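Readers outside the structure-tokenisation community will struggle with the description of the input data as it stands. What matters is that the chain and its backbone geometry are given together, residue for residue. For illustration, here is how one protein appears when written out as sequence plus structure tokens:

…
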Amino acid sequence: MSKTDRPNSPVQAHTLDSRDQDYYFETITFKVENTFFNVPRYHFERSSEIFATMFTLPAGDGVPAEGQSDRNPIVLEGISSVDFRALLKVLYPLQIRGIRLTKDEWISVLKLSTQWHFVDARSLAIEELDKHSEMGVVDRILLAQKYGIAGWLRLGYTTLAQRSNAISQEEAEKIGWKTAFLLGQVREDALSQAYRQTQALYQNTRPRRPYDSEDEDEAEMYAAGLNIQVGRIEDVFGEEFRTAQLESTV
């Protein structure tokens, strides 16, 4: 066999090796409470501008960069390991057939994705929480107030204003007395306007029927009031909705 017929030497073959541009991950180690987590840096760099900026900060002279090992992790103070694990389930799912999280885990994802600006994870958390029909209107309002979800605020306030029963003391304590008071004003203004319009309409155009009752008149009047409250919600709470929208995009 001549020299030209010999197979490539190990050194020659090695020069052809390369790291895949998509599937060769550098890992990062976090310490949250008393638990270490070692995961690819990928989503923390690509999906969160906060972490992307953190990773670009230079280490001190002679000091190893944080996150390289359990001996020198990035310590996330004030974060629950339960919340952090839920976020990792979304960023790095262990199941091939989709992400399966409980309602509380999705709330954890919403919390941290909002705090750290994981835009896609936040959108997914809101989308998944929307599917939990057992969440009441007040529960959604509380999450919306805390994490800046303008759509939930608008829908929640409108629902409370339009329903037949008034806001309870317990609900008022949860959503805030000022919010409850403003919603009460919206209801009163709408019903007062509906009463005046209905009375004028009945007096001018409708003969009194012998079987009519005052309760029936009030029911029709109340229904008329509900139809005009949506615009008033926007007038009263529009600034809060706009602030929530801005906070969600920061």
Residues 200 and 206 are 10 Å apart (CA to CA). Residues 213-221 have pLDDT under 50 and may be disordered. Residues 177-205 form the longest helix (29 residues).
